[in-house]
Amino acid sequence: MGYPDRPGWLRYIQRTPFSDGVLYGSPTFESVGKPTIIEITAYNRRTFETARHNLVINIMSGEDFPLPYQAEFFIKNMNVEEILASEILGDFLGAVKNVWQPDRLNAINITSALDRGGRVPLPINDMKEGVYVMVGADVPFSSCLREVENPQNQLRCSQEMEPAISCDKKFRAQFHIDWCKISLVDKTKQVLITQELMRGEGILPDAGEYKPPSETLKTRDYYIDFLITLAVPSAVALVLFAILAYIMCCRREGMEKRNMQTPE
């Protein structure tokens, strides 16, 4: 409330006017601890009856429950609103938990492939846009997830071939994972580079006395420059005109030769 649009991190999607609308997104650090109030207004298209509701989103800090190991999956056979359904997302997290075996596992971010530069699929064979799902856990990646990093699978991905992943069958029944697009991030190995703050006295160094330009500037005469600008092109034009006139009027031997060779 009080703003002309939703927060930048909050997305909204509704495929058709008759389908359910979905709000989703991952809040930024600036939004932590601040309640976000979304004013929802709906109206009945037949009776024009209007209803209004305020949705309060309380954003809590995740520092108390760190998830340093994060994996992002690309699901090819889903749209973003389909994976956001609680039962579908629960099934996906259950499949990931089955191959990862963490103590804590949460979905961190969900993004449509269109927001990553993907193309709108053709309306044939029930093709889907695809969706990226990032999950975080408290234990290192399992050997199955690490299989995508071996040289053989990297070579297959470079040749646009499906890599051989042993645990793919645990997803295949419901989710088609593009294993070449999986991203594994270990935040425990990321080194933070900090710079020391050099606190000074707050006084700029003395660079001498400031001398502003004079207020009385000398006037400059541009008449000579103007004459030169006109005279030079005019002189060149006159020379060219004289050469052309000489060729056209004084060099006429060709006509006399033609007349002598032409029989009467």
UniProtKB/TrEMBL annotation:
One of its GO terms (cellular component) is sarcoglycan complex. Residues 1-60 form the Sarcoglycan alpha/epsilon N-terminal domain. The chain crosses the membrane at residues 222-249. The keyword Metal-binding does not apply. Residues 66-186 form the Sarcoglycan alpha/epsilon second domain. It holds the Pfam family Sarcoglycan_2. Keywords: Membrane, Transmembrane, Transmembrane helix. This is Epsilon-sarcoglycan. It comes from Eleutherodactylus coqui.
